[in-house]
Write a structure and sequence with these properties.
Shape: globular
CATH topology of the largest domain: Rossmann fold
Number of helices: 8
CATH architecture of the largest domain: 3-Layer(aba) Sandwich
Radius of gyration: 19 Å
Strand content: 15-25%
Structural class: alpha/beta
Distance between the termini: 33 Å
Number of strands: 14
Order of helices and strands: EEHEEHEEEEHHHEHEEHEEHE
């Protein structure tokens, strides 16, 4: 991928970012990879190909290109190029505790300057999530169609991300009323597991009912989610992929990841559909 050098410093949104650009250059000892994106992207590249090393002690290429990595390989591995192209299209999120990397298909809303945020339109992905969770909750055929479309997109992301492909078990994030019905997010996790032929371990909730996370502040969430989930010992020694529909603060994913680590899971990736605009 050849790009012209950006002219302004990279702005890192603490809620999540796309990789803005990347390029490579051959050198005598291999090649350089220049990135313009968040630290999380550089860490994913290094995890996908451990041959990459920071090109300078602080792993920065200056105020415009954010990271410079060097590899002894003559050229970039195809799977790394696929990962970088993917991260240019979807969001990389700050990792919740116990999660190695967290990705999201898109934002929930489309910001418009000068317009009340409550009037912002949903992204296409958010429309699918909203249809599955709320609008067509009691219209199974329409809800299933939204779920199938999201499953297609999630599986396509996994197909282009070598780190996600390494997961050999899929975990869900139980809904707030998981004793009565399976949430839309859990159904997505199950659909992705089925489509990919990857075993799914359903995460258990201690409480029969808990308040919805979107209605709680950070302190309340931490209290309610403390030791709320448990994961079967069958996940021990596995690499897990947590699938969820909506990412707000990451507290629910972090709580599942904590339970997974306690069960012996060795690595955890997170993948969700939409990221809310609220921090």
């Amino acid at each position: 991928m050849s790009v012209s050098a950006p002219t302004v410093p990279f702005f890192s949104d603490p809620r999540g970012n796309r990789l803005e650009s990347w390029t490579t250059r051959s050198i005598v000892t291999g090649h350089e990879l220049w990135l313009r994106g968040p630290d999380q992207v550089a860490r994913q590249v290094a995890a996908a190909d451990p041959e990459y090393r920071p090109y300078s002690p602080d792993a920065t290429a200056g105020p415009v290109w954010t990271h410079a990595l060097a590899s002894p390989r003559a050229s970039m591995l195809p799977e790394v190029a696929s990962l970088l192209n993917l991260l240019s299209q979807i969001l990389t999120l700050p990792e919740p505790p116990n999660v190695d990397s967290a990705l999201c298909l898109d934002w929930y809303k489309i910001p418009v300057a000068g317009v009340d945020p409550y009037q912002w339109q949903n992204t296409r992905t958010a429309e699918l999530v909203s249809s599955g969770k709320y609008r067509f909750r009691y219209q199974s055929s329409m809800q299933n169609q939204a779920g199938r479309t999201l499953t297609d997109i999630l599986c396509d992301v996994i197909n282009h991300d070598v780190l996600l492909q390494h997961a050999n078990v899929i975990l869900d994030v139980p809904g707030h009323d998981s004793k009565r019905y399976v949430s839309f997010g859990s159904r997505l996790a199950e659909a992705v597991a089925y489509r990919r032929g990857t075993p799914m371990i359903r995460v258990s909730s201690k409480s029969e009912f808990r308040p919805e996370a979107k209605n709680l502040n950070s302190t309340q969430k931490a209290s309610i989610l403390e030791d709320e989930f448990s994961v079967s010992p069958g996940a021990s020694g596995k690499s897990a992929l947590i699938i969820d529909d909506v990412f707000q603060s990451g507290s629910s994913m972090a709580a599942v990841a904590k339970a997974a680590r306690a069960s012996g899971v060795v690595s955890i990736q997170g993948l969700c559909c939409v990221r809310t605009m609220r921090r």
